[in-house]
Amino acid sequence: LNFDNVITCFRRRPEAVSRLICFPWAGGGSIHYARWGTVLNSCIEVFAVKLPGRESRAKEPFFQNMQQIVDEVISVLLPLMREKPFALFGHSFGALTSFAVANALKKQHNVEPVHMFVSGAFAPYSETRLNYPQRSELSDEDFLRWMTSIVMKLFLPVLKADLRVVESYRCNKPELPFLSCSITCFDGRDDIPHDLQAWKEATSGEFTIKMLDGSHFYLKEASNEKILLDYITKQLETSELDYF
Fold first, then answer.
1. Which of 69, 91, 136, 232 has a CA between 20 and 30 Å from the CA of residue 169?
2. Which member of 18, 91, 216, 239 is catalytic?
């Protein structure tokens, strides 16, 4: 697979100081985040991860586990991650996939982001998450009843496939923080509580929680998106100073 199979990038910026690599929510595609590349200033280049089973990869089989996502993203992006500072952003399912990628990057390649932005998700090793009901195992009828409450228009097979990946993903709680970068957690005030404090266990760097108005898809509100992108921009504009 080459770069264009796996990444959607609406605006290449070779002069950018840093990159923001974005991971989709369950059932989601890459376009929402790729659009950020046309909104953020020229010092940030945005790469949006495009998973099998959707968009231009619609005919490819869904991934069955987290390792497949990690292997593919790293095989395509590792050389680019080594050349300039990068940050990771993920919402919900995307927050856990971004964590899994960061974990593998650090442990296998000694590379880490300058910042992790995680949104609307439990930390992968959170006790609350591990005891949560497995929605991918529901009957289609029960699953649809749950799904329509928050994501009426999402496509059933791709959503269930993504949930199967994330619900089968297991990660031991770090005995010591393995990252040193900053982590920021975003969440909607009206979403279910996500035990955000557990994300702090992953890093020895700064840890911040920012709550925004709205429920699970708070980030699709224009006012919240502006707050999110302004904050990310502010954090990344100085990233080059901390990276090398």
1. 232
2. 216
Active-site annotation holds for 91? no
The answer to whether 169 and 96 have CB atoms below 8 angstroms apart is: yes
Q: How confident is the model at residue 243 (pLDDT cuts 50, 70, 90)?
A: low
Give the residue extent of every domain in the chain: 3-243
Tokens, residue 66:
């987290």
CB 199 within 8 Å of CB 185: yes
Q: Which residues of 101-114 are buried (b: 16+ CB within 10 A; e: fewer)?
A: bbbbbbeeeeebbb
Q: What dotted CATH number matches 3-243?
A: 3.40.50.1820
Q: Which residue has the tokens 């950018």?
A: 16
**Which tens digit of pLDDT belongs to each residue from 30-45?**
999 999 999 998 999 9
Q: Are 49 and 7 in contact (CB under 8 A)?
A: yes
Q: Residue 155: what residue type?
A: F
Helices (H), 84-126: 93-109
Stretch (H or E) spanning 187: strand 182-188
115 is catalytic: no
* Nearest Cα to Cα of residue 136 among 108, 164, 96, 156: 164
Residues near 175 by beta carbon (within 8 Å), at least 6 away in sequence: none
Q: Which of 30, 92, 98, 182 is catalytic?
A: 92
d(CA 244, CA 236): 14
